[in-house]
Amino acid sequence: MEKQNKTKMSSILRIFFLILGASTCSQSLASDHAPRTDEYPCDVTSDYVRGGKYVDCAARGLTSLEPNWFPETATTLSLDHNMLHNLVSGCFIHLSELQVLTISDSQVTTIHEDALRGLGKLKELNLENNKIYTSRLPSTIFSHIPYLENLYLKGNTWENEGTLEYPFSSSVPFSDLSHLTRLSIDEASEIIYFGQPFSKLKNLTYLYVYCPHYVVKGSNRSFEGLRNVALRELVLGGTGQEGHFETGILANVQNLDILRIHHVAIGNQNIMKCLWPFENKRMVLIDISHVFLRHHRATPTGTCNDGLMTKESLKHLSNICLSQLIWDNSKVVGIEPMALSAKPNLRRCLRSLQFTRNLMGEMDPWRSFYLELIRFESIEEIQYAGYEWCGPGYDFKFRNDHNVRKSGYETIHSFNTKSTSTAQTHALPHYSNSKNGNEREKLTTPSENSSSYETPSIRIPRESERTRFVLRFPKHLQSFIIVGFSGYFELSAWHIRDAQNVKEIRFVSCHWIEWSGPVSGLENVTLLDFTRSHVTSRPNFVPLQHFPNLETLVLNAMRESDFIDQLLKESWLQKTSRLQHIDLRDNHLHKLPRYVFSSNLIMNAVRLSGNRLTSLGFDLSPTPSLSVLDLRKNVISSLDLAARTALDTHAQRKPDFSLLLEGNPVYCMCSRIPFLVWLHTTWVRLDMSGNYSCIDDRGQDRWTADLVTTKALWRRCVGKMALLVSLCLALSLIVGFLAVYMWRRFRTAVGAFFLNILAPGFK
Ligand SMILES: *[C@@H]1O[C@H](CO)[C@@H](O)[C@H](O)[C@H]1NC(C)=O
Ligand SMILES: *[C@@H]1O[C@H](CO)[C@@H](O)[C@H](O)[C@H]1NC(C)=O
Ligand SMILES: *[C@@H]1O[C@H](CO)[C@@H](O)[C@H](O)[C@H]1NC(C)=O
Ligand SMILES: *[C@@H]1O[C@H](CO)[C@@H](O)[C@H](O)[C@H]1NC(C)=O
Ligand SMILES: *[C@@H]1O[C@H](CO)[C@@H](O)[C@H](O)[C@H]1NC(C)=O
Q1: Which ligand is nearest to the CA of 447?
Q2: 500 CA distance to ligand 4 middle (Å)
Q3: Among 147, 274, 302, 381, which residue's Cβ finds the most Cβ atoms within 10 Å?
Q4: pTM, entire model
Q5: Which long-range contacts (CB under 8 A, 24 or more apart) does 69-75 make?
Q6: How far is the CA of 526 from the centre of ligand 4 (A)?
Q7: Which ligand is nearest to the Cα of residue 251, counting in written order?
């Protein structure tokens, strides 16, 4: 009885709140926008992370909210990409379980001070990219959500306060949120300033500062309020505007693990000078991108001076025990030899170096940079990419090779070793075949009198000179990635030492690699990638012979077809019996040799899309574990009986086998009926569920999976045949009857007639 009362009571209460909420919500909005008529515009699913309901109202075109759209058990509510304008009071009052509320990109301008009432358990609030004057928000708003941990406010409107000398803004509306750990916010004025109010945010570990003004200035006092805050990650992001930092700017945040500076044109030299507080400290990541000088400071000399990194400019950076350095798109024109590795701290700690899209590729492709790599004792990953040779927006995360896009790079630079004089061969003086086994010591001597602007050259003795070239890799190196190298590079008769950990080697969009001699010492490499590179080899030499552990070979959109032609003709793949994935997409291949994969027993995926293949072409029987065969965008109009049988047989052995055929010019014609029927009946898993567009004999577009099409076609084709056959049968029957009748009726006359013909004169 009591229980019943209780539930009744709570439901009454709930209804009361709903009505209250609804009336306030629609009341205050009625003047602005009519509420949507849709009853429940949101999707409600399980929130697997937080245990309640996930309510998704993103991009529904909402202009107002109704409380009854959101179930009480909601733990996550997304209202991103709507047109809400005002957040009025009472809309979320019943959502006492809600932990995450995101309202980004929703044109919100005002938030009622009771709007967040009831959200006592809220941990994350995202209001990014609206039109809120964040510094004018009343602090009562945040008093309703005292346990908030993540608050994202950047991309909102700032007050136009001009260039205040020191904007001692005392009011920070969320300074009482003692649990706050992550914060993103716009800088309210041109001078970055985080003062006293922020000192209360003791648990703040992540701070994203977005600078929307025309100028960015950083002073020694910029982060004075964060001196006793446990900040670990600081991100400074802008819109590419000019700026300048005083060199003591980071002194108050010297316990950072991660520092990121993006799209702020303060220049490389300025940033390098600010890094002194981290000297002799351990850091995880420094990530610098798009910091080159702009506007009037970006004169050719200005850019050049800013991009030339000397020992002096790198003295702070090289003295940090840093694990990962990303230096991207910042017009670094040269690094003084041995400057990056000058001090033991960076040399000892650096594990990953991503030096991408700077200007060094043009001027100094190898010398100062590559010679130094050996000196980094812990380095595991090196990514080096030339300047925007891969087109803008290139994705440098190579984990997924589908990310690799087409190159826009056309220019040809070629530095031919054959024409280089011996005077220039000091480029790689240390990688010699010296017998004293003392290469390491020698490597520490910087190349003398070399300037970063000399013509780059690499001279590697060719086999005719009977020298076996010994190259040493850093001991822990696992992955070596070069993108957009524009010179000539000859790989011949090399032995690589200390490469036992190297697993991944990629030369992407590189201009000319001549692979003319055996490279040994890389036996543990599992992935080789020459996407969009120009690679040549010489006849009867098998480059892959020393790669017995190769699992993935990516030869996608190669600039010259010779390398692949040779690979197929000369059966290079017989040397790589562990191969599991091969990518030969976009190579104009017409045909594959029948036994191309006969030695690759564990082959798993064969990618051949974007070629000119007309049929399956190769034997499937030696590759019992093949699970993906990608033949998309070829010119296959149908598969013949042998291919279909082979595929069916394979699918019986390997039930999860998939065949991808989309984008082929399939014909829905009488002669292709067996193939179309096969598409409907096979056990092979097909992409598009076997529904491909095809052209029928009347030139109409059809879909192969449409039973109606196939049936009609069948009827038409098979029907024609049947008609012909029955006509023939009927005709012969009639003739037969006629003959018998004639015989019966005119037996004697006919007999006499034939006798007459056969034996004239016989009577
Ligand atoms: C701050 O962080 C520490 C350690 O993570 C935690 O024990 C403490 O409760 C946090 N303080 C607040 C107010 O959240
Ligand atoms: C800022 O700090 C740096 C390093 O401590 C110091 O050299 C510089 O003079 C300071 N600048 C100003 C304007 O105080
Ligand atoms: C470097 O160049 C200077 C001037 O050109 C010359 O005097 C000096 O001997 C050179 N040093 C070496 C090691 O070649
Ligand atoms: C390959 O790796 C194994 C195990 O790590 C190691 O013993 C072997 O020496 C490596 N081979 C080469 C050629 O580096
Ligand atoms: C095949 O795809 C087309 C276009 O997407 C679609 O209109 C058609 O209904 C599909 N047929 C079947 C049977 O799924």
Answers
A1: 3
A2: 5
A3: 274
A4: 0.74
A5: 69/40, 69/41, 69/42, 70/42, 70/94, 70/95, 71/44, 72/14, 72/96, 72/97, 73/97, 74/44, 74/47, 74/98, 75/47, 75/50, 75/51, 75/99, 75/100
A6: 12
A7: 2
Residues of the chain with confidence (pLDDT) below 70? 1-38, 158-170, 361-370, 387-467, 760-763
Residues in CB range of 749: below 8 A, 6 or more apart: none
The residues, any chain, with a CB within 8 Å of residue 379's CB and separated by 6 or more, are 350, 351, 352, 353, 373, 474, 476, 477
Query: For a pocket test of ligand 2, which of 219, 223, 247 has the largest count of ligand atoms closer than 8 A to its C-beta?
Result: 247
Contact assessment for residue 363 and residue 336, using Cβ atoms and an 8 Å cutoff: no
In this structure, what token pair is assigned to residue 265?
A: 């044109």
Distance 15 CA to ligand 4 centre (A): 70
* Span 72-93, pLDDT tens digits: 999 999 999 999 989 998 889 9
How many residues make up the chain in this entry?
763
Phi, psi of 269 (to 5 degrees): -65, -40
Q: CB 67: neighbour CB atoms within 10 A?
A: 23
How far apart are the CA of 215 and the centre of ligand 2, in A?
A: 20
As for ligand 1, residues whose beta carbon falls within 6 Å of it are 178-179, 203
Ligand nearest to the CA of 178: 1
Q: Cα-Cα-Cα-Cα dihedral of 250, 253, 258, 261, to 10°?
A: -30
The encoded tokens of residue 363 equal 């001027």
Q: How far apart are CA 496 and CA 519, in angstroms?
A: 7
Q: What is the pLDDT of residues 318-353, one digit of tens each?
A: 999 999 999 988 888 888 888 888 999 999 999 999
Using the atom order of ligand 4, give the atom closest to the CA of residue 522: 13
How many Å from the N-terminal Cα to the C-terminal Cα in the chain? 127
